[in-house]
Amino acid sequence: MTVRTAAATLTGLPAYLYDLAALRAHAAEVRAALPARVELYYAAKANPEAPLLAALRGLVDGYEVSSGGELTHVHAAVPDAPLAFGGPGKSPEEIAAALRLPAVRRWHVESERELRALAAAADRPVDVLLRANLPVGDGALDGVALAMGGRPTPFGMDPDRIEDCLALLASPGFERLRLRGIHAHLASGLPATELLRLAERIVGWSAGLAARHGFPLHEVNVGGGMAVDYADPEARFDWTAFGRGLADLLDRHPALGTLRIEPGRALTAYCGWYATEVLDVKHSHGEAFAVVRGGTHHLRTPATRGHSQPFTVLPVDHWPHPWPRPTATGTRITVSGQLCTPKDVLAARAPVAELRAGDRLLFAMAGAYGWNISHHEFLMHPRPSFHYLDDGA
Ligand SMILES: *Cc1c(COP(=O)(O)O)cnc(C)c1O
């Protein structure tokens, strides 16, 4: 069954629909565009639903987790998968839990405090990457959706702090920690050209650091952040150009063993859909509004990013009531949810030929940072239903 057919027929709206076959096909394309020396990890926080994690197994080399909760959950969903454990503010309990799990193959250390806590708690060898917050300069990150580096942030360490950590790693008590290389996730929402430029800087800086300090640079993780264009559901990050650029970068750094990337949004955004129905159509001070069942407490992404979530109208011709059907024709319409806040907007002033109460709407690109970043409890509306379509399996 296609997503569209399912959305048009299922009961239990609102609903999240996931197309697992489409997810696998997309991930396979991404993998095929990357050179062999590039490892692909999926950043689980973009969407940690177990069926998605399982669908990606075999197409990704591992999963990046950023909390003790994700650690436990992802390991249960894909028990044989390698995990990289990142995230600022790892608590002593999380550090202990991660040390008990052999699946945790890489540790992204975010501070000197964490390095000391890890060394003190480690009862086995631990492979670490030091997370760097590099100055990128010349406005390279101006206008990106989210910047985690290149400016003051709580993420990773400044270059001089990284050097302090190198000194610590060479000192007594740190023997169990094995430095594998550098991790940097500096920004989210960058097109391939810009992301390649960042990767060049990260790898170049890491190679220089390794040369100065005389340690072998086994690997560099250049993070995620591949752009997703919500204004154009058909557009995709240019994985082919990105893969070629990374191949080129690796050619210039033959001593570097592995380059790793950890996209989240760009892997799962396209495989998720949010389907709902129009409860009411109203006109207010010259503008049209459609109020749908559900809203941003289920799909918060458009509210937090300030975009319109792309949607298609699934007309429902049956109207069971004796009173006139609220309708908007040939107009722009703002699609809002059931919350008592003007911020509950899924799409603003979107053009529609016709939209009536009782019609269904199918929102695309809801597969990443959708349900799991939303404020579900606000106003205590019911939760959506969840459906996993898998025609390809
Ligand atoms: C969130 C995150 C990612 C994934 O970012 P996307 O923009 O979803 O690709 C990768 N690495 C780290 C460390 C992150 O925090």
Kindly list the characteristics that best describe this protein.
TIM Barrel; 18 strands; binds pyridoxal-5'-phosphate; Lyase, Ornithine Decarboxylase, Chain A, domain 1; 11 helices; 393 residues; 8-stranded parallel beta barrel; alpha/beta; 26% strand; 8-stranded mixed beta sheet; single chain
Q: What is the gist of this entry?
A:
With 393 residues, the chain is an alpha/beta fold.
DSSP strand content: 25-35%
Which ligands are bound? Answer: pyridoxal-5'-phosphate
What shape does the CA trace take?
elongated
**In the residues, how many domains can be counted?**
2
CATH top level class name of the largest domain? Alpha Beta
For the record, what is the CATH homologous superfamily label of the largest domain? Alanine racemase
Distance from first to last alpha carbon: 12 Å
Mean pLDDT across the residues is: 96
Low-confidence stretches: none
Number of helices: 11
Helix content: 25-40%
Helix-and-strand structural type: alpha/beta
The CATH architecture assignment of the largest domain turns out to be: Alpha-Beta Barrel
CATH fold call of the largest domain = TIM Barrel
Order of helices and strands: HEHEHEHEHEHEEHEEHEHEHEEHEEEEE
Q: What characterizes the major β-sheet?
A: 8 strands, mixed
Cα-atom radius of gyration: 23 Å
Protein described:
This protein has 393 residues and is an alpha/beta fold. The protein has two domains: 48-263, TIM Barrel, CATH 3.20.20.10; 270-389, Lyase, Ornithine Decarboxylase, Chain A, domain 1 (Beta Barrel). Helix content is 28%, strand content 26%. The protein contains eleven helices and 18 strands. The chain has helices at 3-9, 20-33, 50-56, 68-77, 92-99, 112-121, 159-169, 192-213, 239-252, 265-268, 301-305, and strands at residues 15-19, 38-43, 62-65, 83-85, 104-109, 126-131, 146-147, 177-183, 187-188, 219-221, 258-261, 272-284, 287-292, 311-314, 327-336, 345-356, 360-363, 385-389. Strands 1, 12, 13, 14, 15, 16, 17 and 18 form an eight-stranded mixed β-sheet that branches. Strands 2-3-4-5-6-8-10-11 form an eight-stranded parallel beta barrel, surrounded by five helices. Helix 3 links the parallel strand 2 (38-43) and strand 3. Helix 8 (192-213) packs parallel to helix 9 (239-252). The chain is elongated, with a radius of gyration of 23 Å. Bound molecules: pyridoxal-5'-phosphate. Pyridoxal-5'-phosphate binds next to helix 10.
